[in-house]
Design brief:
Blueprint: E1 2-4, E2 22-23, E3 28-29, E4 35-37, E5 43-44, E6 56-61, E7 69-76, E8 81-88, E9 93-100, E10 103-110, E11 113-118, E12 129-136, E13 139-144, E14 148-153, E15 166-171, E16 191-198, E17 205-207, E18 215-216, E19 219-221, E20 223-226, E21 231-234, E22 246-251, E23 259-265, E24 271-278, E25 283-288, E26 291-295, E27 301-306, E28 310-315, E29 318-326, H1 335-341, E30 343-346, E31 363-366, E32 368-371, E33 374-375, E34 382-383, E35 391-393
Antiparallel strand pairs: 1-26, 2-18, 3-4, 4-17, 5-16, 6-15, 6-17, 7-12, 7-16, 8-9, 8-15, 9-10, 10-11, 12-13, 13-14, 19-35, 20-31, 21-30, 21-34, 22-27, 22-32, 23-24, 23-30, 24-25, 25-26, 27-28, 28-29, 32-33
């Protein structure tokens, strides 16, 4: 049931302690002051950094390589991102394994040949999958869970020389210019790798970050907001359609959220819209201009439709729990301008000043976010790197 209320509910949620849900990453420092970890450690690939920069990497002499196989476990809900990279000849010959549309994608450059192949099972189901990559010249083979195989054959006109020099391996990034790739993709991967066995090497990997973020032991699909940042889109990417407006749908356990779920504002104008959860009172407050609506019922889905002359709020597809607010130039000045040149923030309250990027950040999991019936990919937003775009702690 929705009721009009006089003020927005207050209160703060104590920071969620996830210590028992996460695997830490132990390590020590090398002589250059860089942290080192075992290649078999559990690594979260979506850590805050330059998105193309490797998270961990090693460089070894090829004379030390005694195996042609590498294997590891991968778990993700993310359909796209870089998993691992390897090269020789200082990047002249290289190999990249990533996901695109949830499928494994291999790209290989060797001598005067360059090839890419995608296929096999979709891997972004949130389950652990074992991947093995082996080089059986002239073939590169990717095996998934012991059976599904992709085989790439390559022959070069160049004379095959005995391999010498150095081999570089990297997780979560690449060491060449991304323009050299045949297939371009978004590199950031919200996923975890564990139990890595890399060419039977036992040397530690060097870490580019000061500390490695842990992986949650159990995850579920969704976008997780730890209370430290938000994701911002331009409202112009959501054009208002004359017949149905802009339809926004949110799924999740709203009783477990605290903070601003999303807000809309144009630069230089007052806040147009805000949806705020209060974990203390178990209320969701919707502010639209001067109007405020408090929703006290427990629900798992909220549908908010912005039309040219009406705002409609529907809980759990129950028409008896529908609230409508008429819109006129007098009641909502600047409404049309905001949709043409404003900002939509998920996970925080947009500030009054243009350089104030947000406050009252959300703590909680949005299991699904849709606009106009399509899933909203937070990787396409300007977002704080603490946000997990595709997974929440279960």
């Amino acid at each position: 049931m929705a009721v009009f209320c006089k003020s927005m509910a207050g209160g703060l949620l104590l920071t969620l302690s996830l210590t028992l849900l996460r695997w830490g990453v132990e390590g020590q420092r090398n002589t250059r002051g860089k942290k080192e970890v075992s290649g078999g450690a559990t690594i979260y690939l979506g850590q805050d950094r330059d998105i193309w920069r490797p998270l961990i990497h090693i460089t070894v002499n090829l004379s030390e390589v005694s195996s042609i196989k590498s294997s590891f476990d991968l778990r993700t809900f993310d359909p796209e991102g870089i998993v691992f990279y390897g090269d020789t000849k200082n990047g002249e010959d290289w190999f990249i394994l990533s996901l695109k549309d949830g499928l494994p994608l291999m790209q290989i450059s060797r001598g005067d040949s360059r090839v890419s192949v995608a296929g096999g099972p979709k891997l972004n189901d949130g389950k652990w999958h074992t991947l093995e990559v082996s080089n059986q010249d002239p073939f590169v083979i990717l095996e998934v869970d012991g059976s599904n195989k992709m085989v790439v054959g390559m022959q070069s006109k160049e004379t095959v020389n005995v391999l010498s020099g150095e081999l570089r391996l990297a997780l979560g990034g690449i060491l060449i210019n991304k323009e050299k790739m045949i297939v371009q993709f978004e590199p950031h991967m919200d996923g975890c790798v564990r139990r890595g066995s890399w060419l039977n090497l036992s040397v530690p990997w060097e870490v580019e970050a000061e500390e490695l973020w842990p992986c949650y032991q159990n995850v579920q699909p969704g976008s997780y907001f730890p209370g430290t940042g938000l994701a911002i889109f331009n409202t112009s990417v959501f054009p208002m359609e004359a017949d149905r407006g802009v339809k926004t749908e949110l799924w999740g356990d709203f009783n477990k959220m605290d903070g601003t779920i999303f807000s809309i504002k144009a630069p230089g104008q007052k806040l147009m819209f805000a949806l705020v959860a209060n974990n203390n009172t178990k209320e969701i407050t919707l502010t639209f201009g001067e109007e405020k609506i408090c929703m006290k019922d427990t629900f798992k889905r909220l549908v908010i439709t912005f039309q040219t002359n009406l705002l409609k709020v529907l809980q759990d597809e129950d028409e008896s729990k529908t609230t409508t607010l008429p819109i006129s130039p007098g009641s909502q000045p600047g409404y049309s301008t905001t949709w043409r040149a404003g900002r939509l923030a998920v996970g925080g309250l947009l500030g009054e000043e243009e350089d104030n990027v947000g406050s009252q950040f959300l703590t909680g999991c949005l299991e699904k976010i849709q606009v106009q019936g399509k899933d909203l990919d937070l990787d396409l937003a300007v977002k704080h790197m603490s946000i997990s775009s595709h997974s929440c702690p279960a």
